[in-house]
Amino acid sequence: MINIILADCKGPEIVKLRLILNEITPFSWDVKQCDLTKLHNGFLSNTIRYIMYFIIPLSIVIRRNKYQHILAWQQFFGITLAFYSRLFRLKCFPKIVIMTFIYKRKENLLSSIYYHFIKYSLEADSVHKIICYSEPELHYYVDTFKLPPERFLSVLYGIEKAQAVDLDGFNPEFDNYYLAVGRSNRDYRFLIEAFENIDKNLIILCDSLDENPNISNVVIKRNIHGNDYLLYLKHCHGVIIPLLDTKISSGQLVYLRSMEYGKPVIITVNDTLYCYLNEKNSIIIEKDFKSLYNAIELLDDDNIYNAISMQSVSDFNKRFTFDAFVNRLAEALQWTE
């Protein structure tokens, strides 16, 4: 029988995930990819993306007898598969592992419908495990969905190393700047207001941020991905991650990549980050202006800056590479031989 990885992106991580799983598990793995990464901007793009989350899994449902395990790298592929399996009462359905599970509940009618859809899907017998990337998050979701704890697994995440390729035409807006990156669960309003009174420069890379602040030391860039993003990271002084919700995982891709590059991270308090970050490899602050000012002032000290930088690189190489993550995942799922 076939074991398949369902992904909504194309990249070296998916290729390597398959290679490592083929090597360390007793199963043979294949990949089904549909690149939806560009469908995040605008109502029409987002609508198409959500429709595809329901259409693509149908091909798996039709051929379900061919599959043994389904590793849903995109969580919504796994959720909709589970939804179909329960709705149509499909027997002998493949075991679904839902990766990178993130859910944020809101108080309105549409969100209530969404909550019950997610809960209905996660309760399906076809769901083998739901993977989140921190222990506090696991307990939060158990409480939120009233599911048995054994349905969830907490696995520390890791990323594939990525080298920035220097380009002659790369000219950042400032010679010295802090960088903020990402879309989900970010409080950029707080960050922009803070930099009105900070004598430093800030570049924000975010496709979904509509603001254009009239502040000379703050620049917002959109559609910056791949090597262009890595160049901005390579040449920045440090990275700032201001978070909104304190319960859900956010910013992991950004702070792990920053650790790889030895860029000190200033991040606001979040329950899920302590599995990765500490006072030696980052600066964790309360979300208020004074704490942010003090953190930036600390990074003006070369000794403190260099100590955090070296510790973050060391921690990344020891614990947070993609190989380490996949091995932890396979071991947690008891797939290792």
TrEMBL record:
Q: Which SUPFAM superfamilies match?
A: UDP-Glycosyltransferase/glycogen phosphorylase
Q: Which domain of life is it from?
A: Bacteria
What protein name does the entry list?
A: Glycosyl transferase family 1 domain-containing protein
> Which species expresses this protein natively?
Candidatus Methylumidiphilus alinenensis
